[in-house]
Design brief:
Layout lengths: L19 H18 L57 H5 L7 E3 L8 H4 L16 H4 L24 H9 L5 E2 L7 E3 L4 H6 L7 H17 L1 H6 L4 E8 L27 E6 L6 E3 L11 H13 L4 E7 L10 H9 L6 E5 L10 H8 L2 E6 L9 H7 L3 E4 L22 E2 L2 H5 L5 H6 L3 H18 L14 H21 L5 H4 L6 H4 L13
Parallel strand pairs: 1-2, 1-3, 3-4, 4-5, 5-6, 7-8, 7-9, 9-10, 10-11
The protein binds 2-acetamido-2-deoxy-beta-D-glucopyranose (10 copies).
Membrane topology: Single-pass type II membrane protein
GO molecular function: glycosyltransferase activity
Family: Belongs to the glycosyltransferase 47 family.
């Protein structure tokens, strides 16, 4: 599945998103490009078309009114702390930890007016211009259950999850967080359940800037009026966006510029955003795209990991996607050519533009990826892709062509040494046409492939969104990691403030060296690319 968004992947030779002039230029190019790509005249949107056929009934917003009713567990209940938070060999447990294991981890959830979250869901037919999103809201945002796993998927826990549903998924899951508090003065961090991406998704095409920015201003005003704001000027606040950062980074009020200006409002410059793709700003962190596997229990994950680790794979490499013929500099055409012309059918191409869009069907995607050693992840409309996470849950080693596709993004999730779990082929080498992907990948020995696959399979629990109904001991999933990191960050900012310093200097810096700061290492020197 591809994203109907635009972004600056043409800008990679400049310092990431930093140079404003090239920003605007890029955006215009891409907006044009986008309208061509979108193929609206055919009544279909080839890159995002979704078929909700077969098993699904028709759904509408009234049926989702109840999704907010999951009860909040008592944070100090016995069962809740079984795996939490003491670790073996940690001798530096302070008194506070002993009396309260949630110390330094409390989160307060703002009671935001519903027009900024559930109210948006009621408009589910219009969330994305090209198809009805209502079915995607089911099951806490996981979407319809996969009813026919066809022996490809494990029997339960698989859903037809839409890649833009993270806001809802996160909101439902945080209700299970063990250290929630209703007393905001105790909280380390304040979660703002604003469905920023679903909101703006309705207005990205064909609406003026005041419509696109309306909710952004509304939430900013509301937040500033709450007494929670004053403690740290919002720097203990965070929210989750299920779209890429680029959709919230409009710089001017020029109508032809893309997106909303949410992240450029003074209030939001003091807030941390977690989104599926971050830009270079330091108050943004990337968290995984939601993929299809949402297990209930540890054992479901363990079984799936075993299955993916041991599977014999008949293709050397695979690509699931569509070309970007009108996008200047896109390497997708070349990737597809190389795949189709690879000798001895060592590459499998899943054409996302073909009839009956298989790329949105979990069974079809996993059926291909589970048979491949390597899965190609070239930039598309933006640097990142949901497919990266489809490939990880399939135990397929991702091949990246740009450091912003993953290494500079999911720094909370992936090993710092990217050579361990992925292959990097600079996209310029593909553009020049002098690198054969087949040749590069053929050089990896069976042993090395198996080592890398082990690392990929280890990532599975970290990048998935567990079923919020799981109340038992559970692996640490994408949300557990995000909440741990975000409270750590806020605690650090708080300490800086206590020392009387202004944390805003680093809080929202436009920082092109994210990669370096994150300590990323690997076989090639990534810095040379900037
Ligand atoms: C939505 O569903 C409810 C209950 O199933 C039904 O009464 C109502 O007519 C439906 N509305 C639309 C717009 O389909
Ligand atoms: C505990 O704290 C001491 C001093 O603050 C430090 O030297 C030591 O490495 C810490 N031990 C652990 C296990 O973190
Ligand atoms: C104990 O609490 C302190 C501060 O409240 C925190 O920094 C530390 O990580 C906690 N330790 C454990 C083991 O949870
Ligand atoms: C917070 O308050 C709500 C409503 O009063 C209650 O349902 C919930 O259990 C409380 N949560 C905590 C963590 O105390
Ligand atoms: C923007 O569009 C809305 C509705 O489409 C309209 O009511 C409003 O007047 C427009 N604003 C400007 C500044 O054009
Ligand atoms: C808005 O941007 C377009 C494209 O960059 C440019 O041609 C136009 O002059 C701009 N309009 C204003 C009012 O700045
Ligand atoms: C953002 O935080 C800084 C302190 O770091 C503060 O001076 C500023 O007023 C805050 N902005 C808003 C809109 O509250
Ligand atoms: C294709 O497969 C045949 C038979 O397995 C083998 O002899 C040949 O070297 C392969 N060609 C390439 C280019 O790998
Ligand atoms: C990164 O991992 C690879 C493969 O495990 C290893 O060969 C290499 O030495 C590591 N590089 C660094 C800088 O740790
Ligand atoms: C690709 O071609 C360019 C220009 O001809 C050359 O500079 C570069 O070294 C080549 N790269 C590889 C990996 O062969």
């Amino acid at each position: 599945m591809e994203k109907p968004i635009v972004n600056g992947s043409h800008c990679h030779n400049q310092l990431w998103f930093i140079i404003r002039a090239s920003f605007v230029f890029c955006l215009v190019l891409l907006c044009l490009d986008y309208s061509v790509l979108s193929g609206v005249k055919n009544g279909v949107f080839p890159l995002v078309s979704q078929s909700f056929s077969g098993s699904q009934k028709t759904h509408n917003a009234t049926q989702f009114a109840a999704i907010d009713e999951i009860s909040v567990p008592n944070p100090i209940s016995s069962d809740a702390h079984r795996d939490f938070p003491f670790r073996e060999n940690n001798y530096n447990i302070t008194l506070a930890n002993v009396t309260d294991p949630c110390s330094g981890k409390y989160i307060y959830v703002h009671r935001l007016p519903t027009r900024f979250n559930n109210g948006v869901l009621r408009d589910c037919r219009n969330l994305i211009k090209w198809f009805n999103m209502c079915p995607s809201l089911m099951n806490s945002g996981f979407g319809p259950k996969v009813v026919k796993p066809q022996g490809v998927l494990s029997r339960k826990n698989w859903f037809e999850t839409n890649q833009f549903m993270l806001e809802l998924i996160f909101h439902q899951r945080i209700k299970q967080y063990k250290c929630l508090t209703n007393d905001s003065s105790m909280a380390s961090a304040v979660y703002v359940p604003f469905y920023a991406g679903l909101d703006v998704g309705r207005y990205l095409w064909g609406y003026n800037t005041s419509v696109r920015d309306s909710a952004a201003y509304g939430v900013a005003d509301w937040l500033r009026k709450q007494h929670e704001w004053n403690r740290m000027f919002g720097q203990d606040h965070f929210f989750v966006a299920g779209r890429i950062a680029w959709d919230f980074r409009r710089q001017t009020n020029n109508e032809s510029e893309w997106g909303s200006k949410l992240m450029n409002l003074p209030e939001f410059m003091n807030i941390t955003m977690l989104s599926i793709e971050s830009s270079s700003w330091s108050n943004e962190f990337a968290i995984p795209y939601p993929t299809y596997f949402h297990p209930l229990r540890n054992i479901n994950v363990v079984h799936w990991q075993k299955r993916t680790r041991t599977r014999k794979r008949r293709y050397l490499f695979c690509f699931a996607g569509a070309p970007r013929p009108t996008m200047e500099g896109s390497i997708r055409g070349e990737i597809i050519n190389q795949c189709l012309s690879a000798p001895n059918r060592t590459c499998k191409f899943l054409d996302c533009k073909a009839e009956g869009n298989k790329c949105d069907a979990p069974v079809e995607v996993i059926k291909v990826f589970r048979d491949c050693n390597f899965c190609l992840q070239p930039p598309g409309d933006s640097y990142t892709r949901r497919s990266t996470f489809d490939s990880i849950i399939s135990g397929c080693i991702p091949v990246f062509f740009h450091p912003y596709s993953a290494y500079a993004q999911y720094i909370w999730y992936f090993p710092k040494n990217y050579t361990k779990y992925s292959v990097y082929i600079p996209q310029n080498d593909i553009k020049n046409g002098n690198v054969s992907i087949n040749r590069v990948l053929s050089r990896f020995s069976e042993h090395r492939i198996s080592e890398m696959r082990k690392e990929v399979v280890k990532l599975i629990p970290k990048v998935i969104y567990a079923n919020p109904k799981s109340r038992f001991e559970r692996f640490e999933d994408a949300i557990d990691i995000a909440l741990k990191k975000v409270t750590e960050r806020v605690n650090k900012v708080g300490e800086v403030m206590k020392e009387g310093k202004d944390p805003s200097v680093d809080f929202a810096a436009g920082n092109q060296w994210k990669l370096k700061l994150a300590g990323i290492v690997g076989d090639q020197a990534l810095e040379t690319l900037f």
